[in-house]
Design brief:
59% of the residues lie in helices and 15% in strands. With 136 residues, the protein is of the alpha/beta class. The relative contact order is 0.20.
Length: 136
């Protein structure tokens, strides 16, 4: 089974927010080979710039080095199907570009989106996306 992390999933883990246990559990299952976890480079950029803004570039670099050891496959290339689908999600659902890529990648990978972002709800209903909702 494939899961796709939104930026908020990783941030919840790193900041020990309410969804910490849920995200930790998914990572443990991925480490055991039970599931696969993916993350779009666009969503990873959201995590990185947030930590640069909050803690500075050196701290953000240390955090990203730590994250590199997680059992997460980063999707750092975009095929024609994904970029077209991302554009459609952005146009139809008026969502952020990062969330549009999240939804497009989820569709391409047949993955369950891991998020707490309310912006995904309309796309979840309209496009039959599977979502694992995190605690807020």
């Amino acid at each position: 089974m494939n899961y796709l992390f939104d930026a908020c999933a990783l941030i919840s883990l790193l900041k020990r927010e309410a969804a910490f246990d849920q995200v930790s559990s998914l990572l443990a299952r991925a480490a055991a080979g039970e599931i696969s976890i993916f993350m779009s480079i666009v969503n990873l950029v959201e995590v990185y710039y947030g930590f640069i803004r909050d803690a500075g570039e050196q701290a953000a670099d240390r955090i990203m080095s730590y994250v590199a050891g997680f059992p997460i496959t980063v999707i750092d290339t975009v095929n024609g199907t994904v970029y077209r689908e991302a554009a459609r999600f952005k146009a139809v659902h008026s969502m952020s570009l990062a969330d549009a890529f999240l939804c497009a990648c989820a569709k391409d990978l047949s993955a369950i989106i891991v998020t707490k972002d309310e912006e995904i709800k309309a796309a979840e209903r309209a496009d039959a996306l599977a979502v694992f909702w995190l605690a807020k």
